[in-house]
Amino acid sequence: MTARDSKTLRLTRSAAASVRRGHPWVFREGLARPPKLDSGTAVSLASEEGEPLGVGLWDESSPIAVRVFGKSGRLDERALLERINRAFARREAFVGPDTDAYRLCNGEGDHVPGLVIDRYAHVAIVRLDGDHLDPWIEKLAPKIARVLAGRGVRSVALRRARDEAGDRRIRPLAGDEPEDRVIVRENGMAMEVDLAHGQKTGAFLDQRDNRARVRAFGARRARALNLYSYAGGFSVAAALGGAAHVTSVDVAAAAHATAQRSFRANGLDPANHAFVTADAFAFLEAAARRGDKFDLIVSDPPSFAPNERTKPRALTAYRKLHGALAKVLAPGGLLCAASCSSHVSAEDFLDTLDDAALGRDDLSLVAMHGQPPDHPTLPAWFEGRYLKFAVLA
Ligand code: SAH
After folding, report:
1. Class assignment of domain 204-392?
2. In this protein, which residues make up the domain named PUA (predicted)?
3. Does 169 score more than 50 pLDDT?
4. Staple partner for 47: which of 51, 61, 154, 219, CB 3.0–4.6 Å?
């Protein structure tokens, strides 16, 4: 099925306005008469007056009924591959020679809604958001593998949704069977990535530029704290930058084991650093009681606001967290506070770092960062801009 012979769906006035602006999602309630179609079916979109608005793929089960790929044209295998190749080509300008872990395709932000492809050295991991690409991916995968072979990728695997059975969360799609763990290079820094069991598609590639910043901040900062440290990317960066003692805190003990292997892969002895398996708030309370102080703090919690409804509670939690961080930040120390919730805007987030939240008035906001260029978004798609990284000194 292609857009030319595809079904035309009429959009409500507000859904039409949103698609006209370039927003890539049509929710079910944005359709005048939602049809019953197989997921993956190509559809055309039109306003109530019949003005053609776009082409997309149908998703029978998600609240997002149509993901919009463009204004017009056929939507077939060739068109999808062209878009994917364009996303790959765009990376050339953004990723340096000493980095082999980066996002090759960022779904909506690369005009291939729902398709995320992350490269981890010689493995490419595919994640599908929604069901609309399910009928396409098996056919696309060998072609994607052929294109990526030129970059040294030997395996293309699919990251399965959490609710599917089985422990190992990757399934080979094309090429070699991928190993469970790989060592990647990020700006020359080695990182072990758990492809089979790790979070996201294995690592938080969106923090790459921020890890490089933390590495630069590590110099002349003796004691560093990395809260919600996961596989220790920020910890290794701080230590490589010169921080003499890095404390990593996470509830997941397995993540610390990965972090320690990454320390060793960079010639750093993990025995010189601390890995604490604890709740972040409990750790901070105990640290404040002991009078511990840190010269560099990175805080990168999981999303506190998964949706709009939980936003007020999330803002309260961020304020509480940041207040607790301020208590253990040494005078002259540097605080890097991150949020990965798209429902919390940059200004909302800065409100949780004001003097009242921190209980001190000596800090300035020296920088505010977001996602790196291999995680592009669309101006009309605020949902894609989730990452905030505030630096206070
Ligand atoms: N900064 C990391 C990513 C952090 S993801 C990086 O750049 O790679 C969030 C982490 O928070 C996860 O590893 C999760 O195990 C941990 N976590 C969740 N709840 C926690 C809590 N209450 N206390 C400490 N860690 C927690």
Report:
1. alpha beta
2. 7-89
3. yes
4. 51
